[in-house]
Amino acid sequence: MKGDFTKDTFDPIQNFSRVLMQQGRVQLDADFNEQTAILLHYLRMMMVDLAGPYGRPANPDGTDNEAFKITRSGTDIKINAGRYYVDGIPCMNYSDATYKNVLNVNKAYYVYLDVWERHITHVQDDRIREKALGGPDTCTRAQVVWRINLEELGKDSAATPEDAKIWLGRLPKFSDALMKARVRPERSNDDACSVPPESRYRGAENQLYRIEIHRGGTSWDGKTDKKSVPAGNAMQAATFKWSRDNGSIVFPIVRQQGNIVTLQSLGRDERTSLKVSDWVEITDDGRELQGTPGIMAQVEKVDLVEMTVTLKQPDDVPPSEFPRWGYDEKSTNHPLLRRWDHRAMEDVWLSQGAILITERSKSESDWIEIEDGIEIQFQPDGAGVKYRTGDYWLVPARMATGKIEWPTELTNAREEAKAMPPHGIEHHYAPLAVISTNHQGLRQLKDCRCTFHPLCCESV
What we know:
The protein is mainly β.
């Protein structure tokens, strides 16, 4: 969730049952959000315990509930309206939907649901903003999003619903990526009488840093050309971007013609505005829902009067046209610029506007500098980690303590940063059907949906 939050404090291992407000105390967004997370965790966990990992409720009259039933017509598939639960999350399909031309001849597929939560602000849905306040936004929303995916199998596959469940069970909710974060240790002085300064976060404000994967894939192999420019797999390797404000600083696009973008506003103040050399990401609803990274560009000029910015694409991007939007497209696709705070610096290489991911070896120099003493390090697992677009880690930095809030562990009697999986995006999966080809070449469709019955209901 790319909101302007203090931090994310919910941890299911703590077994907290509720948050209790106290009189005369400062109220934080983190407490309110944790209460919601606790309740949601309990409800979803209870739903899984009662109904299983996925399924549709049976109709009270005993008739078949056709929610999310998959039917086939030629190369099209149809999804019936209804409600289906995945890991306790209710997925609502309010009307029958048809996916056109998604099947190929003589192929077999697993058809499954991919479910996650998406962050919604007033930019994506202006109805959540109270007009009586004259413009300011208040709370944001989390929206359940589901998508029908097809996994193509071999020709004439005899896959069964059980095969589909086993295959889906191997899909991770998070990628297998691991990252460490720390405040850079101060170098020791050779003078035995000198006490080295304490490692401290040197920022002037409390921040919630967001480290997010931009282009998915495997890490950069570290190869460079004769001019020390990234080579090897650099154009395909995974990249990341970071923000000191959790990626929450966005600018709705009113119109875009070429590299000239007209914005709805340029932020509340100088800190939340744009300046020359800032990196921004051009994105919209379609890219977010498809899990596709936006287009990275650098601010070349800011016109405060016309409310426009002139953008420049990175030098290593083949010449291409920027997206074009007018007033009509904005109302349905909600294009925006999202500001990121990374930049090119010594030993930090950019590829198409985002930082190339390098993984730890045995060198202390493998830590990647963020700013104000904060460093991160991506961890290999020996099998080639696959980074997924949208994976993110949150790093709260606190001025009062001079530290970041990150788990640690003892390694060789030393306290070191712990390698952690991403905080999100958390994906949930459920099989719906297997479309396969038998030996006679005839198409078959096997239903993989589950049904659960109410624990108690009146007889009809």
